[in-house]
Specification:
Layout (H helix, E strand, L loop, with lengths): L1 H40 L2 H7 E8 L5 E2 L1 H9 L7 E11 L2 E10 L12 E12 L2 E11 L4
Parallel strand pairs: 1-6
Antiparallel strand pairs: 1-2, 3-4, 4-5, 5-6
Helix pairs in contact: 1-2
Length: 146
């Protein structure tokens, strides 16, 4: 009887943990899509709510930029190219979510032909606080085509 009870408690605990992580994964996937849409719209007010105050980006040009620089660019009419992001892996470690995958960036000629878009690899790091998930760091590098 004790063995059965122990098994039942362990099963419930494991199921609860799996379900919670599944909810976190769904939320991170939603946020990944949402912040990309906000960037496309140029909605700096909403982006500043999603980015942590210490958000930092190592961009494909090899520059390290902060929200202040990104917002200044956007307020000076800079339009970031559209990006199609394909999440390949989300890893959780306590209150940290690490998102990795590939993305395709629309080239300057604005073609809609995805075959011509620029391939990149990315890593996004999200941290959960008491008020929710915030994008804290991002790295993106262009993939050299052979």
């Amino acid at each position: 009887m004790k063995t059965f009870n122990l098994f039942l408690i362990s099963f419930i605990f494991a199921t609860t943990l799996t379900f919670a992580q599944s909810n976190d994964e769904q939320e991170i996937r939603r946020l990944e899509k949402h912040w990309t849409e906000l960037l496309d719209k140029g909605d700096t007010t909403s982006l500043l709510k999603i980015w942590s105050k210490d958000y930092v980006v190592n961009n494909p040009n090899g520059e390290i930029v902060t929200p202040e620089k990104i917002v200044l660019l956007m307020k000076n009419s800079h339009k970031f190219p559209k990006v199609e992001r394909i999440i390949e892996k989300i890893t959780f470690n306590q209150n940290i979510a690490i998102v990795m995958g590939k993305e395709l960036q629309q080239p300057t000629n604005l073609t809609t032909n995805l075959e011509e878009w620029i391939p990149r690899r990315f890593t996004n790091v999200w941290i959960r606080s008491e008020i929710g998930w915030h994008l804290t760091a991002r790295q993106s590098s262009e993939v050299i085509r052979k």
